[in-house]
Every structure is written in structure tokens, then in C-alpha cells.
Amino acid sequence: MKSGRFWAWVVFALGAAYFFIPLIATVEFSMRMRRGVYSLDAYKVVLGDPRFQATFGYSVLAAVFTIILGVLIVVPTAYWIRLRLPQLRPVVEFITLLPLVIPAIVIVFGYIRMYGSSSPLPFLASGRGTDALLVIGYATLALPYMYRAVDTGLRTIDVRTLTEAAQILGAGWGTIITRVILPNVLIAVLSGAFLTFAIVIGEFTMASLLNRPAFGPYLQNIGANRAYEPAALAIIAFAITWGCMSLIQILSRFAPRSANRPN
């Protein structure tokens, strides 16, 4: 028994070291911009860079629209499949896995060929159209994570009983989804939203090939031309990621709880 605990602590210590040692080294290196002393100069340079503010703001806005689009597509689809079309679940799951198999660069070149300035739908002929196409592409990349998060949340509630109860009270389909189903899978939606946010913030291929001022190309450009600023950006991105995770944990305490009953 004691031997098992000892090896468990050894494994835990190795895992913690694997995680924290590179992080500590990155923090230490990011503070060596001023020779001979530790300082926050790299962080001041990054945060004061107008390109950082513009690209990060652009990616955050794109992430918000991507999350909204993903929720509008995934929640009704997953709900309807679970309620009325369970036989199509394997097909839908296969479709949602395709973005993991098809590289983003293939999707982008398909967009360029189909929606170029000479096509019947010239999205790429204007900035707004390109932004819309980029959001659609981001929603495609995040589809596997958003769908599985929502589907997992739907498995924890009795979808059929909730739907029948709402219909008896006179609720329509829109009301059922927005006021009955969505609140009960809110944490699952937030989990998918967090994953979507992380994907959008760090995505490089689509934003670069579509020539949009996103955060991913900015990270690559800084990493190729600077020394200490990329380390500072990595720590900032890490802090944002853990901040989002903490926010999800806080919001989960206020979300409605549902009994875990089989559907």
C-alpha cells in the first residue's frame, strides 16, 4: 500500500515537473530583456504594441462570432438527432470528425477557389466577406469539439421528458431549445466555447492565407523576428487560457443542475 502511494507521488512529481519547469523557464527568459536584471520590459513592449491590440481584438471578436455560429448550428442539431433521429448519430459524428482529418490549408484553398472574386459568391472580394468566410472556417475547425461537448451534455439530461413536459405547457420548438434545453447543457456549451476560443486565438493557417489581421499570424511574425517578446506572448496566452478555465468553473456553480437520467 505504501509502495503504491510512493510511486503515485513519483508519477505526480514527474508530471508536475514536466509541466512547470518549461513554464518557469519561459517566465524567467521573458524577464531578461534588460541586461543584468529581471524586468517586465518584454511584457510592456508586447502590450503596448498597437499590432498586438489590433490583432488580439480582431481574434477575440472572431472567436465570439464563431462561438455564436457554432452554438446556433450544433445545439439544435445535436438536440434533434438525440430526440428524433438517433439512427443518424454515427453519420453526424463521422461528419463532425472530418475537420480533424482534412487539413485547414485544404479548406482554405477550397474557399479561395469557390469564393474568389470571379465566382458567383465572391466572399473574398471584400473585407467583410472574407471575415465572414474566416468565421465559417473557424466554426468548421471547432465543430468536432463543440459537437462532442454539447452531445455529452445532452446525455446527462432526459431530453424526451423535458421536451414532452414543455410541449404540454404549450412551448414551441424555439422556446424548448432556448429556455429548456440550452440552460441544462450550459456548462457543456461553455466547454465547447472555451475550446473554440482557444482554437481561434491560436489559429494561423486560415488567417494567414486569407490575409486577415488575426492573432495567430502576429504570433508567428513576432516569433520569427524577436527574442524575448515571444516568450512574453506565450505567458500571456497561457494566462488567458487558465483565466477562461477558471471562469468556466465559476459559472458552473450557477448553472442549473439536472438529474443524470438515461434518455
From TrEMBL:
Coiled coil: none annotated. PANTHER family: INNER MEMBRANE ABC TRANSPORTER PERMEASE PROTEIN YDCV (PTHR43357:SF4). This is Putative spermidine/putrescine transport system permease protein. The keyword Transmembrane applies. The chain crosses the membrane at residues 7-25, 56-79, 91-112, 132-150, 185-210, 230-251. PROSITE patterns: ABC_TM1. GO terms for biological process: transmembrane transport.
